[in-house]
Design goal:
This protein is of the alpha/beta class. The protein folds into three domains: 130 residues, D-Maltodextrin-Binding Protein, domain 2; 82 residues, Periplasmic binding protein-like II (D-Maltodextrin-Binding Protein, domain 2), CATH 3.40.190.10; 87 residues, Porphobilinogen deaminase, C-terminal domain (Double Stranded RNA Binding Domain, 2-Layer Sandwich). The chain contains ten helices and 13 strands. β12 and β13 form a beta hairpin. α9 packs parallel to α10. The N and C termini lie far apart (49 Å).
């Protein structure tokens, strides 16, 4: 099935329907128009999709199929030629792309840090004994419990507005969100504290927006190529190579951040038991041209230090 187009040159952009996804997609559309000034106003059409990940909000992603639930519907629409490109938060993009799909471009990365939103206290370290913290992220949960095993950490899902409403309703004392998302939504002031990466290491690719298209769609690849930010791509692909080596999924608490300084790339990574009882971390660095190899090697280092049952949370 192919979506009918008002003109054969029309590009259809697929996206999730959440407010943040729509903002990110509008950014991509604006950059395309800016980069290709001959593009007419109706040459771009945005098609918003409600994904399973957006609709099922009462369970962790790890229980209902992983982060691919945010992307599978878009992947299908892309391969069925109902859309021409899809905009994603790179941290939601599965480690292994469907055959025939390419990451056409990655925009400049925003701040990768996590934001703490406290309803009763402004700082994470001020949380009282037994405070109730909401997060859907196994990565945040594990790192938080490693520091504060006394906390009551439970699942909170939904878009930014939904989570903030749950805080206001007193369901939780605090939650965490990606600072980049708050910035893009124009509400960075919601964060009562910005957490440094040596306290909470971010998700791989956090803060980066990417665009996928069909690998054989040379025209769309050419249109998107000028939007690609090389330093961000190098860092993100380094982190994704680490994920690949770890067989990383939404069911495993994994964090990673690659930072570029001149010609050198520094990568930090960790894997954890879901209850935070054990965290294995490491770091590697090297020339930017070897970014993916550095990611793979760190992933193998970390995996080599895990014992039986580590990735299913067993002891």
């Amino acid at each position: 099935m192919t979506t009918s187009r008002e003109n054969p040159d029309q590009l259809i952009i697929g996206t999730r329907s959440s407010p943040l996804a729509m903002v990110q997609t509008e950014t991509v559309a604006a950059l395309l128009r800016e980069t290709h000034p001959d593009m007419a106003a109706d040459d771009l059409l945005i098609d918003a999709v409600k994904t399973t990940g957006d609709l099922v909000l009462d369970r962790p992603l790890s229980e209902i199929g992983g982060k691919g639930l945010f992307t599978k519907e878009l992947d299908r629409a892309l391969m069925d030629r109902r859309i021409d490109l899809a905009v994603h938060s790179m941290k939601d993009l599965e480690t292994w792309l469907p055959e025939g799909m390419a990451i056409a471009c990655i925009l400049p990365r925003a701040d990768p840090r996590d934001a703490f939103i406290g309803a009763t206290v402004p700082r994470m370290d001020d949380l009282p004994q037994g405070a109730r913290v909401g997060t859907a992220s196994l990565r945040r949960r594990a790192q938080l419990l490693a520091r504060r095993p006394d906390l009551d950490v439970d699942v909170i899902r939904g878009n930014v507005q939904t989570r903030l409403a749950k805080l206001r309703a007193g369901e939780f004392d605090a939650t965490f969100l990606a600072l980049a998302g708050l910035d893009r939504l124009g509400c960075p002031e919601v964060a009562t504290e910005v957490i440094e990466t040596d306290v909470l290491l971010p998700a791989c690719a956090q803060g980066a927006v990417g665009v996928t298209c069909r690998a054989d769609d040379e025209a769309t690849l050419a249109l998107l190529a000028p939007l690609d930010h090389a330093p961000t791509r190098i860092a993100v692909m380094c982190e994704r190579a680490m994920l690949d080596a770890l067989d990383g999924s939404c069911r495993t608490p994994i964090a990673g951040l690659a930072e570029i300084d001149g010609e050198t790339i520094h990568l930090r990574g960790l894997v954890a038991r879901p209850d935070g009882s054990e965290i294995i971390s490491g770091a590697r660095e090297g020339h930017v041209s070897e970014a993916e190899e550095i990611g793979r090697l760190l992933g193998e280092d970390l995996k080599g230090q895990t014992g039986p049952g580590f990735f299913d949370g067993g002891h």
